[in-house]
Specification:
Blueprint lengths: L2 E5 L5 H11 L7 E3 L12 E9 L2 E2 L1 H9 L5 E7 L6 H11 L8 E8 L17 H17 L1
Parallel strand pairs: 1-2, 1-3, 3-5, 5-6
Antiparallel strand pairs: 3-4
Helix pairs in contact: 1-4
Bound molecules: flavin mononucleotide.
Organism: Megasphaera massiliensis
Protein name: Flavodoxin family protein
Pfam families: Flavodoxin_3
Length: about 150
């Protein structure tokens, strides 16, 4: 089973989440920014794609990447300062999923909440990002890909 992790990040949080995700995946799994995303993703069993929320939707570069992705198993992760259990968060994710190329399937979704009072602060305090949960999301997602 092989995977790739692609992320869009402005202040570094989504990049850190992406690195935690890749730490839960087989050794050698690529982790690249959307600027370096390969055009052909058909060789991957699973594509993890991460973005940050900007004005209630995926950030512009994240949207661009989502539009280019076609894969049976796409795992979407987002960072946002809205409550991750809110209707608004579900709309963020739904909006992102709907950008994927037709025929794509979604194998998992994951949201990291960021503190609204600190969201413009750089560098990012790693302890606030629940990186263990992001790693667990990656492991759980891959185990579901394997079971298919
Ligand atoms: C310009 C801007 C707009 C944002 N808009 C939203 C938003 O509409 N909803 C939300 O939940 N978070 C919003 N955020 C919070 C970011 O999604 C959050 O800080 C995220 O962790 C940034 O990711 P990054 O560190 O990878 O760039 C916004 C952040 C910025 C800088």
């Amino acid at each position: 089973m092989n995977a790739i992790v692609v992320y869009s990040s402005q202040t570094g949080r989504t990049k850190q989440i992406a690195q935690a995700v890749v730490s839960g995946l087989p050794e050698g799994t690529p982790c690249v920014s959307v600027d370096e995303m390969p055009k052909d993703l058909s060789g991957y069993d699973c594509v993890f794609v991460g973005f940050w929320s900007d004005k209630d939707q995926a950030d512009p570069k994240g949207q661009e990447a989502l539009r280019q992705i076609k894969n049976d198993n796409v795992a979407v992760f987002a960072t946002l300062h809205d409550d991750p259990y809110s209707d608004q968060a579900s709309k963020h994710l739904r909006g992102a999923v709907e950008l994927l190329k037709p025929g794509s399937g979604v194998i998992g979704t994951y949201v990291t909440w960021t503190d609204k009072d600190k969201y413009m602060q750089v560098p990012v305090d790693e302890s606030e990002l629940n990186l263990d949960q992001a790693r667990a999301f990656a492991q759980d997602t891959m185990s579901r890909v394997q079971k298919q």
